[in-house]
Amino acid sequence: MCFPYNKTVAMLAVLMLSGCEDQAALRNADNPPSPPAARMTEFGPGTEDATITQHPYMDNRHAINEGKRLYSWFNCTGCHAHGGGGMGPPLMDKQWIYGSEPAQIFASIMEGRPNGMPAFHGKIPEQEVWKIVAYVRSLGGLSKDLPAGASSRPLQEQAESDKREVKTP
């Protein structure tokens, strides 16, 4: 007499336990975990994150020339022009809104800036960004990026001639 009753109770217990597992899955489907909150930083020159290690292309003339090529390739000339003096913030002087240290320039390129500077994080490999940093610093005459005894003048003169040169498609 007890046998059919025990079988029914066992069957109900199995069904109830299997149903509990499905409920947990449904609860997670309705309430997915929230994405991590964006970290806010103060608006000012550079960022706290701009404490990146030393510029890997310091004193590397070849990297500056590669940076110039990449500067054109990634259309930095669209806003900053060939010599660094377009409608975007000028790159030819020594004092910049977000800082002129290599790590600050790197952060500006990777993270972007308000009012027009797009973020290139994930679009340009970091090693290429550092080459662009080397070139951009040379535009401002920040000669720390040039080998001892070299002058940034030839790069500035080349940038001026690039601006005057009319290029047609």
Automatic annotation (TrEMBL):
Domain of life, per lineage: Bacteria
Coiled coil: none
PROSITE patterns the record matches: CYTC, PROKAR_LIPOPROTEIN
UniProt key word Heme: yes
Domain Cytochrome c: 62-140
Biased composition (Basic and acidic residues): 160-169
GO molecular function terms noted in the UniProt entry: electron transfer activity; heme binding; iron ion binding
Database matches in InterPro entries: Cyt_c-like_dom, Cyt_c-like_dom_sf, Cyt_C_IC, Cytochrome_c_Oxidase_Subunit
Annotated Gene3D superfamilies: Cytochrome c-like domain
Keywords, sorted A to Z: Electron transport, Heme, Iron, Metal-binding, Signal, Transport
Pfam families for the chain: Cytochrome_CBB3
Segments for region (Disordered): 145-169
Residues spanning the signal sequence: 1-24
Protein name as it appears in the record: Cytochrome c, class I
Organism: Methylobacillus flagellatus (strain ATCC 51484 / DSM 6875 / VKM B-1610 / KT)
